[in-house]
Amino acid sequence: MEFTLPKEIETLKRIVRDFVKNEVEPVAMEIEEKNEIPQRVIDLAKELGLFGISIPEEYGGLGLSMVGKCAIYEEIGKTHNGFTSLIGAHTGIGTVGIVQLGTEEQKKRYLPKMASGQWIGAFALTEPSAGSNAAAIKTTAVRKGDRYIINGSKHYITNARDAHVFTVMAVTDPAKGPKGITSFIVERDFPGFIVGKTEKKMGLHGSHSCELFFEDLEVPVENVLGKEGEGYFNALKILTEGRAGLAARNLGSCQYLLDRSIQYAMERVQFGKPIIEQQAVLHMLADMALDIEALRSMTYRVAWMVDQGIKVIKEAAMVKLFGSEVYNRVADKAVQIHGGLGYSAEYPIERFYRDARITKIYEGTSEIQRNIIGTQLIKEYKKKG
Amino acid sequence: MNILVCLKQTFDTEEKITLENGRINEEGVEFVINPYDEYAVEEAIKLKEQFGGEVTVITIGPERAEQALRTAMAMGADKGVIVDIEDLGDNVDEHTIAQVLAATIKEEDLAFDIILCGYMAIDDGSAQVGPRLAELLEIPHISTITKLTIDGNKVTVDKDVEGDVEVIESTLPILVTAQQGLNEPRYPSLPGIMKAKKKPLTRLELDDLDLDEEEIVAKTETIEVFLPPKKQAGKILQGELVDQAKELVHLLRNEAKVI
Questions:
Q1: Which of A280, A288, A269 shows the shortest CA–CA distance to A327?
Q2: Do A49 and B188 touch (CB under 8 A)?
Q3: Model pTM score
Q4: CATH number at residue A308
Q5: What are phi and psi of A141, to 5 degrees?
Q6: Which stretches make up the Electron transfer flavoprotein alpha/beta-subunit N-terminal domain (chain B) (predicted)?
Q7: In terms of DSSP H, where are the helices of chain B?
Q8: In this structure, are residues A121 and A114 in contact, taking their beta carbons and an 8 Å threshold?
Q9: Residues of A with CB under 8 A from a CB of B
Q10: CATH class (in words) of the domain with range B2-215
Q11: Residues A94, A181: one domain?
Q12: How far, in whole angstroms, is CA B97 from its chain's centroid?
């Protein structure tokens, strides 16, 4: 058993921590108020190489292992989740499909520009009538000569306002159900691609999700990602591997909240002593730390399993579910410990409380994760006979 | 242009110093490149960008100090040399460090037009190693610089003199030490860190150097290590202004004993 990070990953982690602390944290309130990440921060993140962490070195990225990526995600989780989401969605579901399933030509065309952050990536699966039931998407793609003609719409697409490259799922053979779905790489300026209004959200300000409309959208056949008819399974694979990363982002946010809560509990005096001396408060902190420790172990173990090539369908669902639930529990306690200040919009705690809520919904709801875990349990049981 | 940078790995500026058995406790501590040395690294890379050439970073320290060199390489330095002198134990001071650095430059045959150091390390704050090294190498040195211009062989610097600026001219080869304000160090890029892994690093020990241990051991002795006394809470005087003034004078004379 080995529980330490490789040296160079420690160094990367440290650099990202400094960057987050010195460049992102100071503008976190500004991001929240203006619902916009300052261009300077995005440019610095590009220079730093943050947009390329999931892309192999030969295409200009870092080629990090899942453990390495999680170490970085944990650090970028320690600040405004709008920023976390921009980087997380781009380096996760926005690029991983092309990295894993792309042809050499596709990789050469897209990855270098995505690694530098010149082209932002997004993942377009969800539709108004197909959320958790992803196989029910209605967007169609019909082949005409050397192109596909795509019609339909998507919504809640993270990064859509600014993205250039979209991994789009569409039905190529309605008769085949999930086996009739294909994934495509779609560029923003392809004819017939329309970005709709930016959604107004409870949290994740500064991260912009939009509707997408495809009106006879023309996509060249060479932009099919993976094989025709495998789009649904591709999507599940991309989502599955992203789950440890999502948990790592939540882990970072939880650690931030715990650190702030301890600091506040030591400074805040009521009844003549710091509130950390009240057992009720100390126990809340202990529970937060316990949850976080369990999440940390689970996150890095699943990441390690991904790196070993071990199938992680059940474990990825577990870590996604657990990470989201822990984040919500920790945020709730952090608000409670901070009292009125925790509820005040002048202070960052309530923002995390709102941002935590989406983690139980996006990239597979908590209920869907439980379904996946349950299905896997049955499969495992039957296998044992 | 051949550029050398001497740097030290120090405690992160945000670390709290704790003592254990009369020694500074290093357990669980984060280490960084000494911030003044970071200015030196940045300036070296800028010189390389301007004139071409090679930047070599040198450090003396335990194995963990490699990380400081790798970070400097991720910023743009080309190669590194790390010298382990743990054999000397605590018998090390600025005299030792300067001797070892000079011997390393000789042993490794490191050609240099300019050597950059931080003007001091934030841990022991002695500000001696740079000037001592220049003396041993018999080259000129200018400390606490805030601006550096090189034109052919001519070197022009702004030197910080207690908040004032002195403009000094000299010639290469030279050793300069960096003061805050010289530049804004870049973040090492993440791809830079991955590439830094593969850049050449030479490890040396005392035995590899042409040095007489007797001659390089510390010339100073540390008698005791202790933390400064805790700051007392301030006193707020009350009452009529005249009485307050009298009380203040009384306290300054009899309690603080400063007048």
A1: A288
A2: no
A3: 0.85
A4: 1.20.140.10
A5: -130, 120
A6: 21-213
A7: 35-51, 66-75, 94-107, 129-137, 190-196, 213-216, 241-254
A8: yes
A9: 7-8, 10-12, 14-16, 18-19, 44, 47-50, 52-53, 57, 60-63
A10: alpha beta
A11: no
A12: 11
Assess B189–A contact: CB distance below 8 Å, yes or no.
yes
Q: Is the pLDDT of residue A230 over 80?
A: yes
A47/B193 CB distance under 8 A: no
In angstroms, the CA A258 to CA A277 distance is 16
A12–B187 C-beta distance less than 8 A: no
Domain termination site, one of A116, A150, A178? A116
Q: Which member of A7, A10, A50 has the closest CB to residue B190?
A: A50
- In this model, does residue A385 exceed pLDDT 80? no
- Asked whether residue A207 falls in the same domain as residue A315, the answer is no
Nearest-CA distance from B194 to chain A in Å? 7
Alpha-carbon distance B67 to A10, whole Å?
Answer: 9
What's the rounded Cα separation, in Å, for the pair A83 and A68?
A: 19
Question: Cβ of B193 under 8 Å from any chain A Cβ?
Answer: yes
Q: Which three-class secondary structure state does DSSP give residue A51?
A: helix
Q: Show which of A228, A259, A275 is a domain's final residue.
A: A228
Nearest to A8 among B30, B189, B194 (CB): B194
Residue matched to tokens 């070993």: A308
Which residue in A has a C-alpha nearest to residue B64's C-alpha?
A: A7
pLDDT of residue A119: 98
Contacts of A28 (CB under 8 A, 6+ apart): A79, A80, A348, A351
Distance CA A16, CA B127 (A): 30
- Domain match, A265 and A337 both: yes
pLDDT in tens, A150-188: 999 999 999 999 999 999 999 999 999 999 999 999 999
Contacts of A62 in chain B (CB under 8 A): 190-191, 194
Do residues A274 and A361 share a domain?
A: yes
Residues A25 and A164 in one domain: no
DSSP single-letter state for residue A127: B
B184 touching A, CB under 8 A?
no
Phi/psi-derived region of residue B110, left when phi > 0, alpha when psi is between -120 and 50, beta in every other case: beta
Question: What residues contact residue A198 under an 8 Å CB cut-off, 6+ apart?
Answer: A161, A208, A209, A210
Q: Which residue has the higher pLDDT, B214 or A99?
A: A99
What residues does B33 pair with on adjacent strands? B9
| Residue A273 structural domain | 232-383
CA separation, residue B151 to residues A146, B45, B47 (Å): 61, 17, 11
Radius of gyration of chain A (CA): 21
Three-state SS for B152? coil
Predicted confidence at residue B24, as pLDDT, reads: 86
Task: Please list, in sequence order, all residues whose beta carbon lies within 8 angstroms of the beta carbon of residue B236, skipping any fewer than 6 positions away.
Answer: none
Measured in angstroms, the CA of A49 and the nearest CA of chain B are apart by: 5
* H or E element in which residue B6 lies: strand B2-7
Q: Specify the number of domains making up chain A.
A: 3
Is there a single domain that holds both residue A252 and residue A364? yes
- Do both A22 and A74 map to the same domain? yes
**A204 closest CA partner among A85, A95, A121, A367:** A85
- Domain CATH code at residue A165: 2.40.110.10
Q: Select from B63, B66, B73, B190 the residue whose CB has the most chain A CBs within 10 Å, as the one to mutate to test that interface.
A: B190
- Measured between beta carbons, the chain A residues lying within 8 angstroms of B29 are none
CB pairs < 8 Å spanning A and B: 47
| Helix H or strand E encompassing A123 | strand A121-124
- A267 given a catalytic annotation: no
Q: Are residues A201 and A327 in the same domain?
A: no
Taking CA A79 as the corner, what is the angle to CA A78 and CA A85, rounded to the nearest 5 degrees? 100
